Prior knowledge:
6 helices, two-stranded antiparallel sheet, mainly alpha
Amino acid sequence: MSIELYRYSAPRHPDDFWNDFAQSEEVKAILKKALAYDVQHRVRLEELKEDVFFRFGYCPQSLPESSFDTPPTFLNEDKRQQERQDDEVDDGEEEEEEEEEAHVIEMAKYREKGRRVKRRLEKLAKKEERLEKKEERLKKEERLEKEEERLKKEERLEKRKERLREKRKKLEEEEEELREKAGI
Length: 184
């Protein structure tokens, strides 16, 4: 799979994607939920935050751009301490400090990018909520229009009935008049 110069090539077979990219079952599960075609089955932001994938283990706030080309590596605190104990050579200490400083700076960048992504996700959730409310309003308006149309039909029917009653009354009067003239 590659993304380069606005060109995207996908694996020819879905198994190739899972073999190349998402080998963990947790990753597969979260991707299937997030990319579900049917909106009704797609995972919501609140549910996404509670998924096992995000609750356990180390989860970076963001990923470096280099992760498009190579898998990112993340050192947890235990690994860093073990590396410090194993590498007590004076020459290596300066280099290690520089690496750690660079790592701290990079992690700060990750956190900031993560915050931005989180804000975007929150904005999308709010937008989704507004769209759902708008859809509800439109459905309500549609129901009101149908009710209004039904009332208009009833009113037209009532007017027709009134006209028929008036015609009947006139015919009865004419019949009565004819009977009087005929002496019946």
